[in-house]
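User: For my dataset I need records formatted as: sequence, then structure tokens, nothing else. Please produce one.
Assistant:
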Amino acid sequence: MTMLDWLLTAGTVIDGTGSPGARVDVGLAGGRIAAVGSLAGREARRTIDVAGSVVCPGFIDVHSHSEFSILRGEDIEARLRQGITTDLLAPDGFAYAPASPSRLPDLLSYLEVFNGPPDEAWEWSDPEQYLALFEGRAAINVVPQVGFLAVRAEAVGWDPRPADPAEIEHMQELTRQGMETGASGIQVGLDYFPAGHASTDELIAVARVVAEYGGVYSSHVRGIRGDVAAGVEEALEVGWKAGVAVHVSHLFGSDELYQLLTDARESGLDVTFDAYPYMAASSHLAFCLPRWFDDGPPEHLISKLGDPAVRAAVAPHIEEFFRNYVPDPGNAYFSALPDGPYQHLQGRPLTDGIGRVGSTLAEVVCTLLAECRLRVLMVYRWDDEAKLRRAMTHPLGMVGSDGLFRGTHPHPRGFGTHARVLAHLVRDRGWLELPDAIRRMTSMPADRYGLADRGVIRPGAAADVTVFDPDRIRDRATFDNGRATAEGVGHVFVNGKAAIESGRLSDTSAGRVLRASSR
């Protein structure tokens, strides 16, 4: 009988399927779960008594802006101490491949506010080379996805117009190349540009390619800051016409909004969504500019912000955005700003800029975006617990942190989401039962994105395993201190290697690229 690498004894195993827990042992060997049951007498190189703890699959975060952090090894403790063992790449369609040398600088500039700049040592020219950067240096697994923002920027550029037939064909070709590298699907972010210039017909065209590979069309829908229902309806239309599974990112709304998904599901469309357990959003400050403003690459937009006539034209739109989206501008605060004269505003409300940066809210926005070269990240707080509960308990919903890791005051969701689900939603509020909460973070996302041997505790499955104390686990990140890591996770195994052992960081290079061909 094969000697086990690790033997976890006397824990309560919650296997990720939603089934109740059972007190059994779990043995790991060769990067796999070798045995589950009564394993007394089995030989193991290391045996750990985990009595009183829950043993469950490692958590899968379906939406996190973490890839540059993973490559650098920064903030990886924030992921592991929540029990996360897998992140998906290209959230909101943010990607750097495929991008030709002439297109890449604009993508790097536009996405720097979310991910920071790449290290000088990183070199890639296609999706395959980009994924190769993660091999041997990632502490957790990553799942490749096609990023539509990069696809459209490469094929069409930044012009605010529909793609012509030749450009659509080029986008389909680029999408196919990405799927051939083992992508789980395509990620689309339609409130970001140049992706937001795409027509519904373009989205259907690329989604048809994804459908050929059995992939998923995941969308930050058009209109998150306005008519969300119309955006959801567009995503469903893409699903029906392309014959592709649909996933809606970070969706919060009314019962009527979720009914659109439920009705589509009952009619035969494979549709799901994700949400995070906080009453606050986070995005770049440029989110408040009108759609018509985004008519070119970053340098063009920065130049426009210096034009008094343009500032006058966008001012009423900025004021309207905050009236509708964040009625109290004091609930919008600076999360990250670049080095320079405004960095002291991090953690402060937007209104603190009035009188110091500009005389009006609109002038503050335009000045900061111009002088900080669009690199201003915000947190937008809201207060509607009923909306939060609908999102986190809906039967079609799973957990995605939408984590951001820039600045001194990041939204706490990147550092606390998965622990907060277990602590706040399960233990404190009773909104979810523990097995169901774990399912929403393990087998449900694994099934959604084709990770056949992950998200479950069963013999033969990949040994991505989290062990936590159900009484102690909690998120410590707050809006004042968004970088505090969670506590209560005692052990985390990534592909059978201990990334956290007895509460201490251990092997942080065991992650793999989980391509469709290798899952």
